[in-house]
Amino acid sequence: MTANALTEWRKSSYCGEGEACVYVADAPGSLVRVADRADPAHLVMATTHAAWADFVEAVKETG
Question: pLDDT tens digits for 21-34?
Answer without folding.
Answer: 888 888 878 899 88
